[in-house]
Write a structure and sequence with these properties.
7 strands; alpha+beta; five-stranded antiparallel β-sheet; 136 residues; two-stranded antiparallel ribbon; 32% helix
């Protein structure tokens, strides 16, 4: 049994193969260049609500912009309402920047306690949110 391929379909197949090869070759030559933007959160773990918690960003001129967050502790101990409020504020900032076309690229967190005071109940949680956007 002899199989014949209509010339239209043979040409279509050859065209698709060439298009695929062309796309692969050109994708190697096209490098995306990104610009980056970051904000950091500093959340205080100091009993009695005496610490300072903030979202820190820099504007286009390099000026530091601070937005207040609540401390993890109040006068009566850990305050889950403050933590939930901070979560809302941080997510609002993430949503603001992703709404402007920024992609959340990386999140890095760490903590620091003040061991010199003999207590591990004081310190901070630091989280950095790195965003990127393709340059146009």
């Amino acid at each position: 049994m002899k199989i014949t391929i209509h010339p239209f379909f043979a040409g279509l197949a050859a065209g698709l193969i060439l298009l695929g090869v062309y796309s692969f070759v050109n994708s190697e030559d096209t490098k995306v260049v990104y610009e980056y933007k970051q904000f950091s959160t500093v959340e205080s773990v100091v009993p009695g609500g005496l610490g300072r918690s903030r979202i820190l960003t820099s504007d286009d001129k390099g000026t530091v912009v601070e937005k207040e967050l609540q401390n993890f502790y109040s006068m009566v101990g850990i305050n889950f309402g403050n933590i939930a409020g901070n979560d809302r504020t941080i997510v609002d900032k993430v949503n603001e920047w992703t709404g402007q076309g920024w992609e959340l690229y990386q999140v890095t967190s760490g903590s620091q306690t003040n061991m010199s005071s003999g207590s591990s109940s004081t310190g901070i949680f630091l989280t950095r949110f790195l965003f990127r956007k393709a340059r146009s």
